Amino acid sequence: MTDYTNKIYIYRAYDPTHTTTIRNAFVGAMDKRFNELISVVKRSVNDNDCFGLKQGIQTHQMVPAGWQAFNYKLSQEKVTKFMEWIQTQVNAGILNIQQYEQIGTAVNSAWTNMYVLDSYKKGIIRARYELLKAGFNTPSIESTGGILMSLALPIHVDRLGLLYTRVYTDLKGITEVMDTYISRILAQGLADGDSPLLLAKKLVSVINGQGIGDLGITNTLGKFVSAKTRAEGLARTEIIRAHNAATIQEYRNWGVNGVNVLAEIVTAGDDKVCSVCNELAKNGPYTLDEAEKLLPAHTNCRCCFIPKLVE
Q1: In 10 A of CB 201, how many CB atoms?
Q2: Segment holding 261, helix H or strand E
Q3: CA dist., res. 250 & res. 19, Å (int)
Q4: What SS3 string covers 157-207?
Q5: What's the pLDDT tens digit per position in 83-93?
Q6: How far is CA 33 from CA 22, 62, 72, 89, 224, in A?
Q7: What backbone torsions phi and psi does residue 66 show, to the nearest 5 degrees?
Q8: How far is residue 247's CA from residue 123's CA, in Å, rounded to a whole number?
Q9: In whole angstroms, what is the distance from residue 277 CA to residue 223 CA?
Q10: How many Å separate Cα 22 from the centre of its chain?
Q11: CA–CA gap between residue 12 and residue 22 (Å, rounded)
């Protein structure tokens, strides 16, 4: 009899979880919101001269600040009012909460939830497929009432709630760090007498990271990763987390007692596996409790779990 206990699973494909479309859509939606923030900051600081740093008038949903909206006498007042406006824009776009249909019911929820839910659904479906392929006597999704019936199980509802909270909280944390940097750069720029155009460039660079070295603020921030870049990494990574949380829970539901890691390949065309993920693939199988803590193994990880084969 073949011993499958320590079999290494290296998936010779770009994306073991098959979530590329969901990840790209989530990153695209994240980018759209950060780009909107970039646009209103540029228009507010430079076009609308919201700090009253130049002469002349420009007229103009995040909504850019009006003409000389923060033209207060004291720089401290300018910074305070601008940061209040920034928070309003972040809440309106990046941290937006509105009505979405969620598992058949319209609820007020974060816009990020729809992407987490899509990945979680895919994880449940993938788990059933892998169970059948591994020799488990499990029914298909269709024969047990469809994917919505599976999602309605209390244990899945609870897991989804935790995933929703995690993503939103982490995204909020990214925007809070961004706000700290924006406030610092704004105060320094006003003290240095920066022009509206230069000040707008500096503030935007905190959001998207473009030209940050050329603008002379790298030393101020130390090791710097822009808010937009961090948010993109969050989107890709949390899609994989949701997918694997769903598969692990579905494996629990059907009595699986061990899993192996299906490792991603490095996308350089050399068919090599990421060293971290390679070790995870070599060292399996894992109990489900052990597996819970393994994936995603790093930012942008694409690995997934498959059940030990039935002998």
Answers
A1: 21
A2: strand 259-262
A3: 18
A4: HHHHHHHHHHHHHHHHHHHHHHHHHHHHHHHHHHHHCCCHHHHHHHHHHHH
A5: 999 999 999 99
A6: 17, 9, 29, 10, 21
A7: -70, 175
A8: 5
A9: 26
A10: 11
A11: 20
Q: Is the pTM of this model over 0.70?
A: yes
Q: Read off the pLDDT of residues 57-78 as tens digits, 9 standing for 90 and up.
A: 333 358 888 888 999 999 999 9
* Residues 6+ away with beta carbon under 8 Å from 240: 17, 19, 23, 119, 295, 296, 301, 302, 303, 304
Interatomic CA distance for residues 59 and 159, integer angstroms: 48
Spacing of C-alpha 277 from chain mean position: 20
Interatomic CA distance for residues 298 and 291, integer angstroms: 14
The number of residues making up the chain comes to: 311
CB 120 within 8 A of CB 245: yes
DSSP element (H, E) containing 97: strand 97-102
Write out pLDDT tens, residues 195-251. 999 999 999 999 999 887 777 665 555 668 899 999 999 999 999 999 999 999 999
Who contacts 157 (Cβ-Cβ below 8 Å, separation ≥6)? 103, 151
* Closest residue by Cα to residue 234 from 162, 172, 145: 172
Whether the Cβ atoms of residue 21 and residue 306 lie closer than 8 Å to each other: no
